[in-house]
Amino acid sequence: MQPDTVVKNAFVYNTFTQTFEKKHVYIAEGKFYHISLDELECENVIDATGKYMIPGLIDIHMHIESSMTIPTEFSKAVLRHGTTTVVADPHEICNVKGIEGIESYMSQDTVLDIFYGIPSSVPSTNRDLETTGGCILPQNVSRLVNNPKVLCLGEVMNFNDLTKDGDSLTRNIISVCQHYDRAMLIEGHCPKISGLDLSKYLYYGVDADHTMQSPESIYEKITNGMFMEIQRKSLSKENVDVLVSHRFYEYFALVTDDVSADHLALGHLNENVRLAHQLGMPMEQAIYCATYTPARRMHLIDRGTIAPGKLADFILLDNVEEFVISAVYKKGVSVTQLHETSASFPESFYHTICCPMAEEEDFDIVCDTDRPYVVCNVIEIDPHAYFTKRVRMEVPVADGKLQWEKTDLALLTVFERYTGKKSVAYALVKNTLKRGAVGSSWTHDHHNVMVMGRNKKDMKLVQNAIVENQGGYAVADGEIKAFASLQVGGIVSDKPLEQLAESLCNVRNELTAVGYDHDNSVMSFATLSLPVSPEIKVTDKGIVDTYSQKIIPLWEK
Predict the structure, then answer these.
(1) Are 81 and 268 in contact (CB under 8 A)?
(2) Per residue in 96-137, pLDDT tens?
(3) What CA dihedral angle connects 496, 442, 432 and 509, to 10 degrees?
């Protein structure tokens, strides 16, 4: 075997010593061949003098649909930021189109290596709490485990179903994975889970978590044997201090989870590596936890390090301390020389929004009481997190209707989109819009059409725009101010990512203009419908207490 390419004079990252060494790196047929200062004949020479060479970044917990795009567009976007392998959980497209949605994503041919986790919780709770277009059952899992692109069971979110007495759908799904001829990893979703409840998660085989962490949760979970997947919202000085001071580098990986289309222009996993370093993590260890530990967690033994026999996925950095990328290579070839194939989806994927157009009276709430007010269960938004609180507030009643427009609260509605029936659920929200309305069919995880506003006219405008365009994210203030079209399943766009990013950026700016105050307003709104995220959310079935997994009334009767 003769090498065909050499990267000369680079400061090469050695994963096993977590140091940089000046070497030549020889590549043969897309794999690393020899790393030394030996001089071997090569046809292709890459002069890396003064540059730092590290393995390609590996993101093992993320959702392509969170970027509102399709695999081919996502691949083009993240490769230039140094991400060369991802493990995607496609539970968003599965909630809309079931197993057909998963297989449509898996069938797309991309330069980026995309592996998959089988969605474990579709719907995220159950049919009594939310309506979805698809579901995952044990027989679906049995069909998918044989796909070579499948590496794990995606995040287990339904704690109540996992731990309840008697038969459990979640445990039956896990059992299929555990008794497959290669026992599969089980990923978790464990927000604010500790003590005995954490032990129950681990007992049933769920041994990883990616949700928002605190110093205490990181220490408890790692010391109980849970692998941590640290995303951006968990990258705080206090959390990094715990990881560094205890040298927990073997037990966590940096991940992205969700990166919106407009943010992909700025970066992907590379931004998390840079931020971890800025917060006090040595760069050598930050690189280790974005390359080697994620590869090892997912049993991807052919990548994650620059060593003979491993895939020649690598990054050249101009400045290692600031993580400034000079070039990215996939299997020894510059990604600028590689091209994505065209993507295609069945025609049915473009016709999934089936709910009727709303009228203004759909935003009236009939309240049969003689009292001048009722005490309502209100969703209070945290401007710095996706968690919410349940608060009780008096809301006036007149002429048999709730006078929500005369308060400082916004009305939140969810229109069931799959059956064609007009079915609407209502909630009230605190700490949100000052005026206008916002709506989306990209609403985690059931993706029904959700609209929130301060007046009925703007709410009707938003709902009608989403239904008419078969999916999107809209903001109105007297008229439609911004609209991001999401035609595929009502949750992603097949248009160029740059075009989607521009329209989504407009949505974000208009959300700010109408008073939505949040660190990430686009995701904050979309997760108001996620019934596995603490502590009170809304679905097409009504307001959900996410701890008890029960529907609670809009007002106390």
Answers:
(1) yes
(2) 999 999 999 999 999 999 999 999 999 999 999 999 999 999
(3) 10
179 pLDDT more than 90: no
Average pLDDT over residues 529-552: 96
Retrieve residue 244's tokens. Answer: 């560094």
Taking a C-beta distance cutoff of 8 angstroms, is the pair 441, 485 a contact?
no
| Both tokens assigned to 498 | 């740059």
Question: Residues 76-102: what's their mean pLDDT?
Answer: 97
Q: Residue holding tokens 């996706």? A: 386
Q: Give the pair of three-digit tokens for residue 53.
A: 């060479």
Has residue 505 got a pLDDT over 80? yes
Query: 173: which 2 tokens?
Result: 């799904």
CA-CA distances (angstroms) from residue 448 to 204, 352, 438, 466?
A: 31, 10, 14, 11
Q: Give the residue-averaged pLDDT of 369-379.
A: 95
What whole-number percentage of the chain has pLDDT above 70? 100
Instruction: Measure the CA–CA gap between 159 and 170, rounded to whole angstroms.
Output: 9
Q: Which DSSP string corresponds to 206-269?
A: --EE-S---HHHHHHHHHTTPEEEE-GGG--HHHHHHHHHTT-GGGEEE--B---HHHHTT-SH
Instruction: Extract the tokens encoding 515.
Output: 């008073």
Helices 237-245 + 215-223 axis angle, to 10: 30
Q: Is 291 exposed, middle or buried (0-12, 13-18, 19+ CB in 10 A)?
A: buried
> Mean pLDDT over residues 397-426, rounded?
96
pLDDT > 90 in the chain, percent? 96
The confidence score (pLDDT) of residue 24 equals 98
Q: Is the pTM of this model over 0.85?
A: yes
**Distance between CA 305 and CA 16 in Å, rounded?**
9
User: Would you state the torsion angle of the CA atoms of residues 516, 273, 75, 106, taken in this order, to the nearest 10 degrees?
Assistant: -90
How large is the average pLDDT for residues 165-175?
94
Q: Which helix (H) or strand (E) holds 440?
A: strand 437-440
β-bridge mates for residue 85, sequence order: 58, 113
Determine the Cα–Cα distance for residues 480 and 266; give it in Å rounded to an integer.
27
Q: What is the dihedral of CA 145, 147, 149, 154, to 10 degrees?
A: -20
Tell me the mean pLDDT in the region 181-198.
91
Torsion angles phi and psi, residue 264, rounded to 5? -65, -25
Q: Residues 377-384: what's their mean pLDDT?
A: 96
Paired tokens of 363: 């935003």
Interatomic CA distance for residues 425 and 423, integer angstroms: 7
Burial zone of 502 (CB within 10 Å; 0-12 exposed, 13-18 middle, 19+ buried):
middle
Q: Residues 319-351: pLDDT tens digits?
A: 999 999 999 999 999 999 999 988 889 999 999
User: What whole-number distance in Å separates Cα of residue 346 and Cα of residue 502?
Assistant: 26
Cβ-based neighbours of 146, under 8 Å, separated by 6 or more: none
Specify whether the backbone of 25 is left (phi greater than 0), alpha (psi in -120 to 50) or beta.
Answer: beta
* Sheet containing strand 113-118, strands side by side: 57-62, 83-88, 113-118, 150-156, 185-188, 208-209, 227-230, 252-254
Strand order from edge to edge, sheet including 480-485:
401-402, 388-398, 373-381, 424-430, 410-415, 449-453, 437-440, 472-476, 480-485
